[in-house]
Amino acid sequence: MTALPAAQLVADLRAQLGAAQVITDAGQRELASTDFYSAGTLCTAIIRPTTTTALAAAAALITSAGYALIPRGGGMSYTGGYTPTRAHTVTVDLGDMAAIVAVNAGDMTLTVQAGATWETVYDALKPHGLRVPFFGTFSGRLATVGGGLSNGAVFFGTARYGCAADHVLGLEVVCADGRVLRTGQAALKNGKAFYRTHGPDLTGLFLHDCGALGIKTEATFRLIEMPKGNESVSFALPDATSAAAALSAVARAGVAEDAYVFDPESTARNMDAGNLGSDLKRLGSIVTGQGSTLAGLKAGAKVVRAGKKVVPEGAYSLHAVCAGRSEAAVRADADRCRELVSSCGGSEIPNSIPVAVRAAPFDNLNGVLGPDGERWAALNAKVTHSDATTVIDGFAAIVARHQAELDAHSVTTSTLFIAMDTHAFSFEPVFHWPDRWLPPHKAVPDAKHLASLTEPAANPKAAELVARLRAETIELFAELGAASNQIGRTYPWRDNLEMGAGELFDALKAHLDPQNVMNPGVLARRAEE
């Protein structure tokens, strides 16, 4: 299809949406076309619709004009999920569709527009004493509900409740041609958004799709009561093998809402960045967030006493947050964590890290750059507990093969392990290297923090090395049949499907997006830049 001239499309969109809702500023387009790892082709424009009806009309106009559509949430990713690959592309920003539509405490459901952040959702539910079981990512101050449901958001609550998509009851989705679909019970005549699996699970088709099948505009979640008590515990372990075994044991027992392991490099970076325990605002949250003044003062004093000497040098550290309906139940879960980790060779240490993280779950996002201004990019693999050591050792072997090159170009690695419900182990390797900043690195951190850092010079040799090692790591994940979140254009999901499943997906994509203009290229790996 021959694309309409950009000037004409922009004029038509402004007439339809309003001038303020169509952005053509070059700097903003560059930001919207770049993630924390690489830059895509510059998008033609950004639209910020205010209603589903407006978005549907705009989608029909854009795609009929020969342009691709790319939904972009908070922009907190590094896998090419929203970086354009075509010159004729319009980016969709749902920042003006961020309302809490309904909190129904009687039915225990929440309906929210997809542009809302996880922090907004958490704050809106807190006065009701309610929560989504999974309640957000580390980046939840900017990361959105729509982005999380498109990309497999994990972290807060994940050890007990899995990922964000596990708690969705239904969706509203705008298709490439402007059709609006509803899924779940709300898709039925006279239906209400309270149940998901009456008949085939149509909701699941649009989850973790990276926006390839449509743009999520609204989601309904199931809710739980906010836990009445919580207790954090931390442990030091001598090596990755024992740390992984301990994390898997805690996960299988189902005794924690959060359970994760930092390697020694991760701990050192977090402490050097001043992100844990030293921030006065965070300390205030610790004091006020413990359920009683006395408990808060004790927790705050413990963090102050521990300071940054929390984890023994060279140790892996496991951190868990237990939560429940009563202090007795929480105490029993924490004691079970102690038994399990001790049996794997762990020793208890001050719990400053999980206390501080939970006190301000959606803290500032200065950590998008390292303490010396270096960049970083992560990968992730979800495997069975029995494959945890295999993926850890496999990555360690990749690093060992390239250690001389890594040292020569000042590239370092770190790892994070996360428990996902009782049945999955998440392994996240991270590459760190000095390099010029991309637009998101300059836009996201606090201005004062950014001013304290010095931007490194462009480092193409380090970047090329990181790209090669990322490719090798992704091949390792594929050999293990691992799952990944934030598939984007980095992981070869479609390429790895068996024939029948692949044909089914292709048929679904062709039905919903026959011109292949809805975020084209995602769910399959492209050459890394």
The whole-angstrom Rg is: 23 Å
What is the CATH C level class of the domain at 229-359, in words? Alpha Beta
Corresponding CATH architecture of the domain at 229-359: 2-Layer Sandwich
Instruction: State the helical fraction.
Output: 25-40%
Count of beta strands: 19
Mind explaining what this structure looks like?
With 529 residues, the protein is an alpha+beta fold. Among the domains are: 125 residues, Uridine Diphospho-n-acetylenolpyruvylglucosamine Reductase, domain 3 (2-Layer Sandwich), CATH 3.30.465; 131 residues, 2-Layer Sandwich (Alpha-Beta Plaits), CATH 3.30.70; 111 residues. The chain is 36% helix and 19% strand. The protein is built from 19 helices and 19 strands. Strands 12, 13, 14, 15, 16, 17, 18 and 19 form an 8-stranded antiparallel beta sheet that branches. A hairpin with a 3-residue loop joins strand 18 and strand 19. Helix 8 packs antiparallel against helix 12, helix 10 packs across helix 13 and helix 11 packs across helix 13. The longest helix is centred in the C-terminal third of the chain and has 20 residues. The mean pLDDT is 92.
